[in-house]
């Protein structure tokens, strides 16, 4: 059963995320008042493990203290 799921994921496309940068962002976490960190992430969806289907650049905001995800902004590159 697991082999079939892995095969379907390989055909439909797997998404890989790599962190391209990280910096301090203005504001505070609404939950714990911790510092906010902006992380730039590039995600690549591949078909058949080698052909890139699409590339998305995202900026994810999270709390440095409680690690709560605050927001994600999609940018066009």
From TrEMBL:
It comes from the Eukaryota. PANTHER family: METHIONYL-TRNA SYNTHETASE, OS08G0230600 PROTEIN. This is Uncharacterized protein. It comes from Dichanthelium oligosanthes. The lineage of its organism: Eukaryota, Viridiplantae, Streptophyta, Embryophyta, Tracheophyta.
């Amino acid at each position: 059963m697991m082999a079939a799921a892995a095969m379907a994921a390989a055909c439909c496309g797997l998404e890989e995320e790599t962190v391209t940068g990280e910096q301090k962002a203005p504001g505070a976490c609404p939950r714990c008042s911790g510092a906010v960190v902006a992380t730039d992430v590039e995600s690549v969806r591949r078909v058949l493990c080698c052909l890139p289907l699409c590339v998305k650049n995202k900026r994810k905001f999270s709390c440095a203290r409680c690690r709560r995800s605050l927001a994600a902004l999609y940018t066009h590159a």
